[in-house]
Amino acid sequence: MGHTRAVKLNDSGAPSYVEQRGLRELSFDGVNLTSADAPEKKVKFLLEAAHRLLSRTGEESFQTVLKHAREYNSHDPERHVQISLREWLADIIRRRGVLSPVTLAAKFLIQHHSILVGLTAWVDGADKDQITDEAYKKFINAAPDLFGMIYHLCDAWYWFRLELEGNHTRLIEARGAEASRQKGADVAKALALKRSAIILEVIRKRPSLQNKAVSFIAKNVRPGVEAAFKAAGLAQETEQSDEAFERMVRRALRKQP
């Protein structure tokens, strides 16, 4: 797996850091490594993307589920919220599957909410449902730092797990295989077009074959087509059964203007 690092000067003469490892690439101005690929920005992007995906696919929004759960008169409101969210997720899984992007979006929103609830439980007075204004303000001020640490842990966990389990390498191999497959498909398509063009050219030189059955046309043009194949460097295409050659002629005739 390739891994390169470099510090370059941008147009203004300031240093710019560029690093690439496998499929992952990052770059930023200045040589402040801690600001690179900020997890906080990723989380904001993921939260917005999750809400948009649920909306676009017609699912009930996370905010709506949360609102209805909180409006329900229960002796244990927070537990009811947890149950409502689990039921919402279970319904999505039942209809779309565990690995669906919509399911993953819902799970992400639920887990993000759970972290906030979990942190709130440690605020002074939360156990008695008597959080003072002072304790609340203290929590609000500390929350960004707490969430920042959580985001950085998640980011480090994600990338370390990719490396540890070899998934990063497999992603690179998969991309390489896909590129090879696409290249092979392009070559095969070009070859098919070339074969069809040669066959049609030979048929055009035989006007007497017009409106004849495909099997009759194939039998009569084969010698001329094979000679043209060899002249075009396609000698391997002459080693085919009568049935395969007839199918080739049929496909060519379908593509003619």
How many structural units, i.e. domains?
3
Sketch the topology as an H/E string, one letter per element.
Answer: EEEHHHHHHHH
| Beta-strand content estimate | 5-15%
Proportion of residues in helical segments: 55-70%
Output the radius of gyration: 32 Å
Anisotropy-based shape: elongated
Distance between the termini: 49 Å
Multimerization state: single chain
Which class best fits the helix and strand makeup? mainly alpha
Q: For the largest beta sheet, what order do the strands appear in spatially?
A: 1-2-3
Q: Provide the residue-averaged pLDDT.
A: 81
How many strand segments?
3
Detail the poorly predicted runs: none
The helix count comes to 8
Major β-sheet profile: 3 strands, antiparallel
Please describe the structure with a list of short key phrases separated by commas or semicolons.
mainly alpha, 3-stranded antiparallel β-sheet, 257 residues, 3 domains, 8% strand, elongated
Description:
It is a single chain. This protein is 66% helix and 8% strand. It is mostly helical. It has a 3-stranded antiparallel β-sheet with strand order 1-2-3, with no helix packed on it. Helix 1 packs across helix 4 (101-120), helix 2 packs antiparallel against helix 3 and helix 7 crosses helix 8. The longest helix is centred in the last third of the chain and has 38 residues, at 167-204. The mean pLDDT is 81.
